[in-house]
Structures are given as structure tokens and as C-alpha cells.
Amino acid sequence: MARHGGGRVWYGKVIGAALGVMMLATGASVWTAQAGDADDSPPEATAPAKPGNNGKRVSTTIAHASDKGKRGVNITIDDGPDPKWTPQMLDLLRQYEVKATFCMVGTQAQAHPDIVKKVVAEGHRLCDHSVSHNTAMDKDTQAYQSQQILDAERMITKASGGVRPMYYRAPGGAFTPYSRDLAASRGMRPLGWNVDTKDFELPGTAAIVATVERELPNGPTLLFHDAGGDRTQTVEALRTILPRLKQQGYSFGFPVR
């Protein structure tokens, strides 16, 4: 999985807030790291949207498959919520009757609880994307990884009004066997992607659409962003992609759990 180094620059301004959270974190418990293959479990048949995970252990393998099967597509949106861009994307998703998975940064969720609640109210799923979006967190200690995952889980759950994230996506794909096992022990399936649209690089709307069309045969999970910069191109790309994929016979679902 590609590492989004650019994300660290934007998130530098939230590190101070994240450090404050770290000081409040209690000593990390010790979980046994279980190394699993980054394979998909078989797609679940018509798994319905759920209000949140039940805290029961899930698979440690990194999910890519869709619960809609071979013609399923998973829209995943990272780094928010953002008061400007997330509502625009929610409007598009509602217009085309598409549900998505929002991978939220803890400090962003804490700052915009009204948007988190709106995401949940409209039937989308939540994903833990760490406290501070450190794309090198796999190089840090287990205690640091625990703080990033567990504090973000608490922040997102509080902001949502009690709905827990169902997935954990490591920033830039910086998973470790330990972080995957920790997330899975909390009921959050590690979540990967198949198509990196590179929208954070602002390649142009046409380029984002072309990337999706070219790489969708690689797998169903598409990666977009709703924060970290100007997301006009992402909004316009989704305006094209959502109806086009429907016309091509794809169904929109959620990553397998």
C-alpha cells in the first residue's frame, strides 16, 4: 500500500493536540500480536449496514473485498470529517443512494461531532484512522500504536454519540501485526484499499476518474479523501464516478467484516 507522505505535512498542525491526548492515555495493555496474511475473507452475503461494531473480535486480515460480491464497490473516504468537504460528499452520496465508509482522524472527529453524527444518521460506516495520521506509526512503539488506535476509537465514538468504528485503517497503510490484532480485538476490521485515486495530489478530476476506471479490476475498495486540502476535484470525480459505475452494473457496499 502506498504511503501518503503529504498527509504528514497537513496533519503536523494537529500533532500538538494529539500529544495532549497522549498525556491522558493510560498505560497500554499488552495484546498478543497475531501475524495474519493480508488476504480477504470470502465476501459476506448481503451484510446490512450496522450502527456500529459490537466489540467482538474480528479477523486480523486486511479487508479489501466487498459485501456485495464480485460486482461490488466500496467507497472509502479518509482524513475527515471536514466542515466544507464532507457535507458536499454526503450530499452526493445521498443523491445517488450510495453508502460509504468514512475513515476519520480522531482530532477531526472531536472537532466536528455534528458531522460525525450526520455521517452515522445517513447510514454510512465509521472507521478509525488514528489520532494524528502519522504515516510512520508502524515504526513506533506498541504503546504509541495503542494510544493512536484506542484514543481515536474513543474520540470517534464520543463524537458519534456512541457509535463505534467498525474498521481500522492505518495512515498510509502503516499496519503492523500488533496494530491489526489490537484493532481486531476491539471489533475493528483492518481495512485496506485496492484503488488509490491519488486525489490528495490534485491530479485533476479527469485523472481521478481515469484511475478508478483503469484500476477497478484490481479490487473493489476505492480510496478518496475529504480533508487535508482542496477537495473540489474529489467531489467532481465522485459526481461522475457514482452514476457511471451504477450504469455499468456495479453495486455499492461495505468492506467485508
TrEMBL record:
Molecular function terms from GO: hydrolase activity, acting on carbon-nitrogen (but not peptide) bonds
Protein name per UniProt: Polysaccharide deacetylase family protein
UniProt xrefs under InterPro entries: Glyco_hydro/deAcase_b/a-brl, NODB_dom, Polysacc_deacetylase_ArnD
GO BP terms, alphabetized: carbohydrate metabolic process
Phylogenetic placement of the source organism: Bacteria, Bacillati, Actinomycetota, Actinomycetes, Kitasatosporales
Pfam families named in the record: Polysacc_deac_1
Region (Disordered): 34-58
Domain NodB homology: start-end pairs: 71-253
Domain of life: Bacteria
